Fold this protein.
Amino acid sequence: MHLRLGKLPARYDRRNLRLATFLKALPPIPPAVDVDQLLSVPVPVPMFANDEWGDCVIAGRAHQTLRFEAFEQDKALAITDQEVLEEYWRQGGGDAVSRPDNGLYLLDSLKAWRKPGWQAAGSHYDIYAFAEISRRDPQEIMAAIYLLRGVYAGFALPLSARAQLDRGQCWYPVTGQGFGPGSWGGHCMYLCGYSHVGVTAVTWGKKQLMSWPFFIRYCDELYGVIDNPNRFTPDSPVDTVKLDQYLRAVT
């Protein structure tokens, strides 16, 4: 199978929100979760053209938007490959004529998701905020996946992951040739679940399991995305009063 990557090297901003700062007292976190099993409707797992274009940053956004709106609207949006590609080209500084294919910075794309947002399934969608998650804290990662309906992640994938993918295996760290972070390239994925074994990502038209040691070694960017309805939901896990104060201060 022909696959494309497309996440440019990780960028960090000291002004980024930290998710732990804005989470309320946490409810019990289940030992295993698949966000899709919590939905009232089935959602597809499309390729979103990531076999031909390096649009993984927008494909990951599309997979997360599908889950957000399935929770909110009780329906699966019909997000098209063309909508994903048009947003990818636009963020790359072009359009459907010039069609740049140079990858994207995940952090820059998150900012654009918040403002101005994007067109998906014929409607406009944006997010309220995003916040960094500790990449080395499985408890915080599991809480974010469970409470925020998945998380948005960047990886510096090793070549060994490609070989494991071709064999239909779980991603796990190896030693020897091809194990170095980024030796395959940068990739963005939406993470939809976890268990004691590891974390499950949606990417390249399928769900891919990775072990916790693999995740800890190769994840180089990790964000909780706070959808707009959360600010109006009384049982939101996010302290929206504190979050609003922070957003006003940094803005």
